Amino acid sequence: MGTLDWSQWFRLEGTPFAALPHFITSLAIGLLMGVERERKTHPLAGIRTFPLTAMFGTLVALVGQGTQSSWPVATGLLLTGLLGFLPQGSTGSDVAEPRTTTVIALVIAFTLGVLVGQGQGALAVAVGIIATALLYLKPELSGLFNRLDRRDWLSILQFAALSFIVLPVLPDRTFGPYGALNPYEMWLMVVLIVGVGLSGYLAVKFLGERVGGPLLGFLGGLVSSTATSMVYAREARAHPEALGLAGSVIMLANLVLFLRLMVLTGALQPGALGPVAVLMLPALLLGLICSGWRLRQAETAGSGPALTLSNPSELKLALGFGILFAVVTVSAAWLNAHFGRGGLYVVALISGLNDVDAITLATLRLYGQHSVTLGTVAAALALAVSANTLLKFALIASLGGRQLAWRILPTLLGSLAGLWGGFAALVLLSN
């Protein structure tokens, strides 16, 4: 499936050469991997050994099918692995290619040949391309991951453990006041938020020193628009020559917030995405218009400070967000039950001062339980974003000074105007 049927093209069915296309596919896979190995200094195997090994895998697979035995494949795999123990001979050089990688690659080539012989040619070709890419891109991959320090790797491992070990074992049922707490759903929200932040954090870690202000603002906004704003506000005060770059990074990081909220809504409640997009898109577009000429100035700005952010997958940050989300969820459910929409709006204003994601997830959860309407969701999000934006502006002004505050003020005001303009449009459409 997904490959050309060479047997029909060349009318090989029913002839002694019916299996020939399998060997041609194995030959191509082996050549692909062998050419990459041939580039190395005195490799154990190269442009001839790899194709022969792949075709050997196809041959033993066909023999095994004919004899209905697994011994030919097992014996072939053992013989391929034993190639690593053969003497390499005189290299004429003090530096030789390490044998382990080539031996493992040979075993993979043999196994891919077996897959071809078993009729899995498309899968074998795809895996062969991936394996060759890993072999070829060793310098790039090594340089990329050397940018991560021990603390980063520890945080990533923590995130992986909490996502793929802890999450599956949490009970997927509601309990607590108003049935507002569901351990599985709550931790799933933590994984979602931390995953988005981790993607931006790794992008900043890998690319931060080589990108300009606009892209740096976008990446920083994925991690945390508040943290990014604080970092560059302090930089603008300490180094006035970085004012232009700092303003551009802060403006775009805060505009990314609207994209984040639309992505979260689409992932959790696709039915609410339309109204939320009507709310967020005008804020994003008007903010971009107000900051457009400032962002163009950033293209010619010099390099700025390294954007140092906390890894969002660190255990304390993940648990902190989980606790905040639980508190906001219970408060929203309680106030909504006793005071209706007004109670939810109070929670949105208060929690929005600290974090918009938590109230967004809590409100979307209430909508999924049919406890609130789309109009209530939109109003709560508008209030939370407004409170968050105003607090960030106050912090930026106090940390970065008056010049930075005036530089970013049009963008923040424009985005808020677009936000409430979108909300007004929603109200008119609902009426």
UniProtKB/TrEMBL annotation:
Residues 24-142 form the MgtC/SapB/SrpB/YhiD N-terminal domain. The chain crosses the membrane at residues 15-33, 45-63, 69-86, 98-116, 122-141, 153-171, 186-204, 211-233, 245-264, 276-295, 315-337, 344-367, 373-396, 408-429. It comes from the Bacteria. This is Uncharacterized membrane protein, DUF4010 family. Residues 191-400 form the DUF4010 domain. It holds the Pfam family DUF4010. It comes from Gulbenkiania indica. Keywords: Membrane, Transmembrane, Transmembrane helix.
